[in-house]
Specification:
The structure is a homotetramer. With about 375 residues, chain A is of the alpha/beta class. Chain A has 15 helices and 18 strands. The first copy, chain A, has one domain: Aldolase class I (TIM Barrel), CATH 3.20.20.
Chain lengths: ~375, ~375, ~375, ~375
């Protein structure tokens, strides 16, 4: 771990984001049809290595089902609108129509409605009845109080999630969730995060989780870095977590999945996440642009309506295609935002790799994207503006 | 101290600013309520580690009192409008209404009015009568001539300040202020600056000052770097000064505070300043956006009206909230410009640190902000423009 | 090969593009008239080291002839419009008039027309009848099926080309083209690519090709980097391939040409490509701006109309001058986009080099262009806007 | 000389421009009045270390006289309009009024008029009669043929100048100027350039020149880097030339001046040039913004009207103040473009240095300016736009 000196009293490592790196083709190529992009975690097998983020503008019971049918898995936020309101649709429509000046304040009101345990059970069952794998998320603070309702619905996979979740939360006033004992005792497999360093990932892996979410601050709707000064660019965060996975595997024989959460917007980002060591990706913003997305062209993170320190933003999204077109194609645009997993497959084929596990070993280069990529996109936009 | 070769005849260290770095969460998290952000310097204790910059658009006697009540300390500029005019309000309004083309010239006129010692005493007493800690600034050139008026008002803390202040000023024509003897003999604790290197900070510490201001060129209203070519990015300047603090402590047993002066605009910047080694921050521009700020939506540095070589600019500021909202929240925006010290508290909690002194050891990474952070802000602006 | 650590589990080399480097004058200068920029490959000798890209908006039989007369060689795409339609002109005009929203979809339709072997033969003969060297490109997938038509026309040089072409393509469902045996048995000299690494270039050189195309993702009309995450900046890709050329020469005694394909827009880029080790350049986009270009102000890559994952964009191009003015001058503009090979000659003369082979040894520096170059261009644009 | 690997076949040094570095204050400060910025070269002493560039939009006989009176020296271009036309004023006005589309072509015509030796003598005498030091420039190609006219006017200092001038020009068709014998035999002191590397500077110093011009491609009106790919950022070029000066001094005992030519736009750039090792600066573009400048708000380099490969651009310049205000102040703006040498004096004083020679040893840091400096300027512009 080479450090650079920031000043006489401080050093730090250099970190890299997806836009800082590029994948290098190897000396072999392969037919896309021969590439295997399936993902297995715990008892579940998915056609594509995708978890849809637990954002109210992205995952509803309906889109969770659709995403499941398309081969991935949607994560329903159990502390979002779907468990606060019997019918959240009017609120989703209102949020999409709010004046930017008043959006945060009004969202704070809308999200002040209490969460109803019976709705938790009901929403999960709704997804389960469609025959797809069910997955839902809670914050560590509320995990215990909602577990009864969650277990009643026979959820398949639980996500325990926050901006930053650690294996060692310290509190003077309350007894925090002991992830290590909680996860080990729970029958449902748990994915936990976010984290963004080797040590943090390693300690989360030691809780018995089947996967860790890697990503602090990279999300499209996230302003954590500006507000708190905290954030690790994703390429480095993923590679560090992959290093932790290796050590944990060596120590325990257990393979814990690294799921790249946030900061992915194009097919190339999905490929880079895997090439940096991720087993799968969690995405929100790219799916919010689907016609079926519950956000009606908007999405926002769960920190957007924090009562005193909002750290996210309601983002307007262009509606680009169906969920199917976004995930599996065909693409009618060339900007990399459609057919994300067809792109992953082609990227692997172009570089000669057959499985996700092999692709984690792909050669990458540090190659800032600004100039190279910028030209084509700029020109492309000129065309659009010229007409 | 690794140097890079600029050319065959010249080498230099690489320096980093706040936007070049990010804080990395540790493997521990903590409740924000358990975090201690109080700051003690000399006999004074503050709820928040904040000094408000001695700018006429930011600190008036009234806002000094309000900032004191909110837990920080406002520094009144004793060479500004408040000591030149009995009633500076008409001039503040005029400055806020000046045409950009004529602003500098007219400000040069307005600031040519003489400073009145009796107003110095009066202004300090006005603040003192409210029961808050009083703090005021002078330049080294005028320190001696104003001391009688300052002492008459029983000032609590004195700031001796300039773009660059050194412990060894050389003059062929006059006897410069000998900081070392002056400060040691003075009863009032002195904070002195600006400086921006290990050696300069160390020598200022040796004058007997209780704190040094670190920052040359980073301010929002400052053009020193363009005009003079001088400037050290803040992350490096702070870390270097923190290194000097350690050496001075080792040599003398005396802990001299490092106060990051300038270049801070968001909560994340405050957190980064501490993480780089600062004990407290001095801010002007973020407070100029308060409804109560005397500048009526404008602020400017004291070098703005230099008669022959102005090195600052009158900056128009969006009025964002009350001083209370800016310092302590609640925030109704997500861009990190409100609830600056709530953000510091949350940043420390998210990274698992309990005190400012501990947080100085936080891990940081070199991670240019442009891409990662830019996306969310850009998108956020699009929303604003879409309506 | 110095690597930087991206994260604990991943390292990579730092890569550089043309905009990251600059050529350094030596201590000698030379008359431009004394500089030799001719290029010899196999039995062919060209006045300028130029291959025109196999893009339908750039190379038609007519422009191939014109480019040949001007000293370079145009590569006709045998899988483009010219071999699908007896008269492609109406389709070229339609493409130039398409609404951006519908361009990709309509181009997919237009390019779904079958390729006609008799047109392959006819087009090549048309060029040959003008007395210039004939060169045409096919993809590896279709090479075998079109060879009869190609050989019937007595083509001079064959280009086997794709986004990435490797010497070892793996397929479970079909028998892929064995480049090594195919090229060795063919009577026509073959140029093959693209590739972008030492290993990939070396293995392509071992197939018996006379030249390799270097460039994955740099092109002006290419979005491979965003869509697939794949791409190597050109300065590094060329230098790596030049390293492979040296090793292959050492192993076999055979000199295989390195042709920089894509990412060149100005005369300075051509000079940098040679200075990084290229023997010649392949360009499309700069030639698309010729009045004679078949694209009528537009050009696009062959991946633009991929049925499920388009990875190129139709780019609108300003029409700047005749092919002669673009290649050989005179220039009436100062932005480096006219008289590209006059610029190469002057660049070599200014640095004191006499031949392309010598110029490959020119000193270069890593010197990001943004600031230095930006100023003049910005100012220049201001002039344009001011009137 | 640490090199970075660009690719397997190519390495190069990292180069830095003025915007990449910043000067660090030392632990001493000084009164500006005590600072000495005079410059002595050969038998001449100047109040300020300034040569005004030989550009027709900058130096006329009248401005050469005014610049001389202000303490610097103006260099008249002996191959410009002043020696081609008895009265160049109508042509200067026409150039200032040309439509951008037609500017280059018309300038090519205007500059096709022959140079008249009698005008060379006359112009120099006109300047000489005002009692200031006379200095004028010629290209190496034409030096010999104009010498008689130059000597007739008793010129004080001769500049032999081109984009790149080397001590070893090679030509197959003509006998090039042998700088080494020519300069040694000439009675007038000669300054020669441009150059941009240690070797090139060293060899030019060995010709017997009293100074070398350092700068290839950095100028504000120069597009050499885009057109030819050639250019060395100024901080590195100056430091390299300063290294050559040291070696030449060691070898011969003769101190040859390093004059930073081009790329300077603000006071801070002048300070940085000296801090990197320059003895003086040559500037054009900042002086073109004077009310007295002959270009009427425009300036252009001598390569702008090259008949086949123009490599400069006619730049529109805001008219900012008198020559006196630009060079010596007072400044009424804060952007660093007025009072350039007052800024140099203040910069030296702020860093505690007394002479230019001492200031060459100032500490510098690598600190890209974009973020830090950008904020203030952006905000400043907002103010301007808000009214």
């Amino acid at each position: 771990m080479a450090e650079v000196e920031i000043g006489i009293g401080k050093s730090g490592r250099r970190a890299y984001g997806f836009d800082d790196i590029a994948i290098v083709p190897s000396r072999r190529t392969r037919d896309p049809e021969d590439v295997d992009i399936t993902w297995e975690i715990d008892a579940f097998k998915f056609d594509i290595p995708l978890m849809a983020s637990a954002m109210d503008g992205v995952v509803s019971p309906a889109t969770a089902i659709e995403i499941g049918r398309l081969g991935g898995v949607g994560v329903l936020n159990l502390e979002g609108l779907w468990t606060r309101y019997e019918d959240p649709e009017p609120y989703l429509r209102e949020i999409a129509s709010l004046d930017p000046d008043k959006a945060t304040a009004r969202m704070q009101q809308i999200y002040s409605e209490e969460i109803k345990p019976e709705l938790i059970t009901e929403r999960i069952k709704e997804i389960k009845s469609a025959g797809v794998v069910t997955c839902a998320s809670v914050t560590p603070q509320r995990t215990k109080s909602f577990m009864k309702a969650i277990l009643a619905a026979e959820l398949d996979m639980l996500v325990i999630q926050g901006t930053v979740v650690s294996a060692e939360h310290v509190s003077k006033t309350s007894e925090p969730l002991n992830l290590k004992s909680f996860i080990r005792e729970l029958e449902i497999p748990v994915i936990v995060g976010g984290c963004a360093s080797y040590q943090a990932a390693l300690h989360l892996m030691r809780t018995g989780a089947v996967g860790v979410l890697v990503g602090v601050g990279p999300g499209n709707a996230c302003t954590t870095r500006g507000v708190l000064g905290i954030g690790v660019p994703q390429a480095t965060a993923i590679a560090d977590a992959a290093g932790a996975r290796m050590r944990h595997l060596d120590e325990t024989g257990v393979y814990v999945h690294v799921i790249a959460d946030g900061g992915l917007s194009k097919g190339g980002d999905v490929a880079k996440a895997i090439a940096c060591g991720a087993d799968a990706v969690m995405m929100g913003s790219p799916l919010a642009s689907a016609y079926e997305a519950p956000g009606h062209g908007y999405h926002w993170g769960m920190a957007t309506f924090h009562p005193t320190l909002p750290r996210g933003t309601r983002v307007k999204t262009e509606q680009r295609g169906t969920l199917k077109e976004i995930l599996l194609g065909p693409a009618h645009e060339n900007d990399g935002r459609l057919n994300l997993f067809g792109a992953l497959r082609t990227s692997m084929a172009t570089c000669g790799y057959e499985t996700l596990k092999e692709f984690q070993k792909a050669e990458v280069m540090v190659a800032p994207a600004l100039q190279t990529e910028g030209k084509a996109l700029q020109q492309s936009q000129k065309v659009g503006m010229g007409h």
